[in-house]
Design a protein that fits this description.
The protein has 115 residues and is of the alpha+beta class. The protein has one domain: 2,3-Dihydroxybiphenyl 1,2-Dioxygenase, domain 1 (Roll), CATH 3.10.180. It contains three helices and eight strands; from the N terminus they run βαβββαβαβββ. Strands 2-3-4-1-5-8-7-6 form an eight-stranded mixed β-sheet. The model has no long low-confidence stretch (mean pLDDT 92). It holds the Pfam family Glyoxalase_6. It comes from Streptomyces tanashiensis. This is VOC family protein.
Amino acid sequence: MPMKIDSVIARQRVDDLDAAIPFYERLTGRTADRFAFAAVQLASVGPFLLFSGPDEAVQRVAGVSATLTVADLAEAVDEAVAAGATVVMPAQPTPNGHRTVLRHPHGGVYEYVGP
C-alpha cells in the first residue's frame, strides 16, 4: 500500500513571533502551542509552524519547505527513497515521536514526522 501523508504543516519565518501569533490564531481559530528548538522560538498554530530567532539558528528550520506527518515514518522514508528521495538527516527521536529530513528528487526539502 502506498505511503499516505496525513497532514502538511506550512513553515513561516516571522520577525516577531509575539506579534505574529494573534493573526494566525484568528486565521485558524486555534491557540498557539509555543516551544523552543536550540535558539529558535516556534509556535504551532493549526497548519502553520511559525519560527523566529537569529539568522544562524533559524537556518536549520528555514531550509525545510514543510513538515509532512505520516503514520509510519520508516515506511514513508523507505518509499520516498525508493522513488528517488535522499536522506538529508536520518530519523531521530523528538518529544512528539521521530523526525527525518528528505530531499525530494526535484529539489524540495521536507521534514517527515511520525511515530
